[in-house]
Amino acid sequence: MAARAQPLTPGVWAGVLAALAVPALIVLTVAMLLASAGSFRLPGPVDWAAIRFTVFQAVLSAVFSVLLAVPVARALARRRFRGRGLLVTLLGAPFLLPVIVAVFGLLAVFGRGGIVNAALAWVGLPPVSIYGLHGVVLAHVFFNMPLATRLILQGWESIPSERFRLAATLRMDTAAINRHLEWPMLKSVLPGAALLIFVICTTSFAVALILGGGPRATTVELATYQAIRFEFDLSRAAFLSLVQLAITGSAAAVALRYAGVATFGAALDRPLYRWDARGGLLRAFDALAIAAATLFLVLPMAMVAGRGVPSLMALPGSVWVAAGTSLGVALATTGLVMVAAVAIGVAVLRIGPRGRLLEVAALSAVATSPLVVGAGLFLIVFPFAEPARFALAVTVLVNALMTLPFVLRSVIPAMQRVEDDFGRLADTLDLTGRARLRLVVLPRIRRQLGFGAGIAAALSMGDLGVIALFADPETATLPLQIFRLMGAYRMEDAAGATVLLLAMTFGIFYLFDRGIGRHAET
Amino acid sequence: MRFSVLLAAGLLTTTAASAQDKPTLTVMTYDSFVAEWGPGPAIETAFEETCGCDLKFVAAGDGAALLARVRLEGARSDADVVLGLDTNLTAAAAETGLFAPHGIDAPELSLPVAWDDPLFLPYDWGYFAFVHEESLAEVPTDFRSLAASDTSVIIQDPRSSTPGLGLLYWVKAAYGDDAPAIWEALADNIVTVTPGWSEAYGLFLEGEADMVLSYTTSPAYHLIAEDDPSKAAAAFDEGHYLQIEVAGKLASTDQPELADAFLSFMLSDAFQSVIPTTNWMYPALTPESGLPDGFETLIVPEKALLFAPEDAAAVRDAALDEWLRALSR
Fold first, then answer.
1. For chain B, which domains are there?
2. Buried b vs exposed e over A449-488: b needs ≥16 C-beta within 10 Å?
3. Side-chain half-sphere of A324: how many Cα atoms within 13 Å?
4. Is A469 within 8 Å of B60 when comparing Cβ atoms?
5. Do B37 and A336 touch (CB under 8 A)?
6. A33 near A238, Cβ under 8 Å?
7. Which residues of B touch A400 (CB under 8 A)?
8. DSSP letter string, A313-324
9. Is this model's pTM higher than 0.80 or not?
10. What DSSP designation does A367 have?
11. Which of A336, A407, B132, B199 could hold B211 in an S-S bridge, CB 3.0 to 4.6 Å?
């Protein structure tokens, strides 16, 4: 597309600016911390241990999440059954859960008093402990395997149905299809998915500490938290967030190097049918993969829901107010992020090969600590105005920053495919600018837009992030309110509010995912 | 993108302060103090009846985050009073030079220790303790018997939580140079370490461990608010470490008289009688009406342990290092 000479329109410039605003904000906030720091202290052995642990657990978590997601995605790609759409949506759920909710759900299943140990005791086996590295990885797989499944499933659906039709005509068996169609697709999708999950896991904090069973499981993010909130060592916080960026940068370089580019040629939007997967054994295998994944993902959430429902009706009024605030924040974030994502997508595609750099710039947000950005913004805002006034605006901004990478990962490849498949036709028709976006691109990326909007809304609904740094008593979001309830012994109210948060998170995700991405099957 | 430009513009615009006929006293405190169910609302009402002012709370996370916030804002802070630091943090707080002497002759306080800090005044206090179900067999009576038993405990991380830091000082105050050995012996009793009190207490209530680090007053919450007498705190022979929560006046205040009035009010019955059943701590000055029913069931440690603020600051790094070493094995 770089070959096609088109002037850079204001729309493209908006995309370029939006993409560059991300690293600019990161640099600005880190610089702000460094500027406010009194002295610079070199990182000690404790910091290095935290860095080692962070990378190690993130690698394990990414590898297991992606490997386990492949059979599930394949099963979902080649089967059609009642409730499949709902299941695909539900698969997005754990990733969207507020951390503490997920931890309590997992403990209800795998903890000391959980279902698994009750079952083990019943058959006379010794209990297993969830606490340790395996617990951290288990939790991260719980969070991220569904995300990997969705990304890989989208990869599967990106193989035009005509290719499977051709494969059937050529009497290819499953192994041959795997070799000629599925493996090239996986080679292009897996590194990106693994990278994303690796990076998400590097910013893990509470999960790693609680399930890791002690200070062995200290991550860089915990060290950052400690530096900002406990030691007020801003230079250390800035250093640690630079380390975080360096880890992500190296991982991105590795992933981009090994990511192949799968090209399947043009498609005609025909429905998919898999002639090769009709055998009984494959059916059984797919059924098993889907059932196991569903049980693993749904059970902990069901436990959380079951516990909280009884106190749902008697929640304090402030919880409902906080729920309204969270909804407003989520909607504002979604609007901001979707406009930015489409603008960046247009710019990335228009600019051509160098557009990849723009994409990387925008994706860098995933590696930043919301704490560092929040503290930096606080320092920027404070001289001019009372930070509490901007609690919600800053929350929306930081949430948008943090969710942008997920939306981009979903939207850009889809826009790329539309350009590959229909770009020439659109050029012939002289469709450019807004008309091209409206008539050609947006209708074909609806499902990715819906998924992206759902993720952005749900993630910002569940985020505790920066609001804690800025909020005054009146402007709490629901997750903050849950935390306040827990901090006041009110665990039952907290459980009830958690169910509310769970319902709102899923509800808003479902509305966007199924509403905008109507009839979408991935 | 246009939206984010607007947002950025909005961020940089100073909003005009709304005209008010009454002066405003801004008290910066931690989150749970100002919650609907915390002491904040009742105290606000009571103080506003007498001060002819508008009392405004600003919340900033927990006690440790509060100090970080004070330092972030520095001398430009709008806050007049900071309420919610504890004695483990007051040395660092005093070092910032941001606090002014309270100048109040404190009445005879109900603390287990003497009080003569010129910058900070206490408003409540409590003993750290391990809380367990009443039904727990063989409740440990000190750290050594806990370490020798197979009783499981959940503790908080001293790097991110005030009770976690309290436990660090507790072991250090009780065992001095033997502290590392105690931590090593405790390592296999510790189920996990949580970032804050809430997660630890939540996990304990879910049955993840036999005991959790909390306060001797925790069972009072279950007894009084939930009518549930099943929780108890284990009395340790070494004594229990104290947490004393304090407030101080910021030197940069533009309402020094109101700030002084608030600090005096803090030690009055109207303030102190709210504390026990909202903050679930002991009031710094027992109100005339005494403690609420139920508090008499709590254990009263025979010995109170507490580092002076400057000692707490001095031993902190070494104690933290010992803790990390012992538990990272």
1. 22-125+243-287 (3.40.190.10), 126-242+297-327 (3.40.190.10)
2. bbbbbbbbbbbbbbbbbbbbbbbbbebbbbbbbbbbbbbb
3. 6
4. yes
5. no
6. yes
7. 4
8. TT--HHHHHHHH
9. yes
10. G
11. B132
Q: In the structure encoding, which two tokens stand for residue A181, read together?
A: 């169609």
Give the residue from A244, A311, A320 showing the smallest Cα distance to A477. A320
Residue A129 is encoded by which pair of tokens? 């402990």
Sign of CA dihedral B134, B138, B142, B148: negative
Read off the pLDDT of residues A1-53 as tens digits, 9 standing for 90 and up.
444 445 567 777 888 888 888 888 888 888 888 777 666 666 677 778 888 89
Q: CA B327 → CA A225, B106, B145, B238, distances in Å?
A: 20, 42, 18, 22
- CA A105/CA B206 separation, integer angstroms: 11
Q: Which of B14, B62, B160 sits opposite A222 (nearest CB)?
A: B160
Please judge whether A394 and B225 are an interchain contact, meaning their C-beta atoms are less than 8 angstroms apart. Answer: no
Contact status, residue A102 vs residue A139, Cβ threshold 8 Å: yes
Beta bridge partners of B153: B190, B211
The whole-angstrom distance between residue B168's C-alpha and the CA centroid of its chain comes to: 15
Give strand ranges (E) for chain B. 24-29, 54-59, 81-86, 99-100, 120-133, 153-156, 190-194, 211-215, 231-234, 240-250, 282-283, 304-305
Task: Test B324 with A104 for CB contact under 8 angstroms.
Answer: no
Measured in angstroms, the CA of A417 and the nearest CA of chain B are apart by 24
> Tokens representing A153?
């499933």
Judging contacts by C-beta atoms under 8 Å, the chain B residues touching residue A215 are: 157, 159, 193, 323-324, 327-328
B189: left (phi over 0), alpha (psi -120 to 50) or beta: alpha
Token pair of A285, please? 């295998």
Domains in chain A, CATH or no CATH each:
1-39+312-522 (1.10.3720.10), 58-305 (1.10.3720.10)
pLDDT tens string A55-114? 999 999 999 999 999 999 888 887 788 888 878 877 777 777 777 778 888 988 998 878
Average pLDDT over residues A481-488: 82
**B24: closest CA of chain A, how far (Å):** 14
Residue A521 near residue A85, CB atoms below 8 Å? yes
DSSP string, B101-123: -----------SS----SSEEEE
Burial class (CB in 10 A: 0-12, 13-18, 19+), A271: exposed
- Contacts A335 to B, Cβ<8 Å: 3
User: Per the structure block, which two tokens stand in for A446?
Assistant: 């609806």
What are the chain B neighbours of A108 within 8 Å (beta carbons)? 206
Query: Shortest CB distance from A131 goes to which of B68, B157, B191?
Result: B191
User: Do A403 and A336 touch, CB atoms closer than 8 A?
Assistant: no
The DSSP bridge partners found for residue A290 are none
State the DSSP code for B236.
Answer: P
The two tokens of residue A476 are: 């709490």
CB contact (8 A) between residue B159 and residue A222: yes
Q: How far is A76 from chain B (nearest CA, A)?
A: 35
Which amino acid, residue A18? A
Three-state SS at A160: coil
SS3 A219: coil
Looking at residue B227, the DSSP 8-state letter turns out to be -
Instruction: Indicate yes or no: CB of B195 within 8 angstroms of CB of A214.
Output: no
**Which of the residues B5, B6, B18, B31 would you substitute to probe the A interface, choosing the one with the greatest number of A C-beta atoms within 10 Å?**
B31
The pLDDT value given to residue A429: 79
- CB-CB neighbours of A426 under 10 Å: 18
Look up tokens 């009073």; give the residue: B81
B275 contact residues in A (CB cutoff 8 A)? none
Chain A hits for B222, Cβ within 8 Å:
489
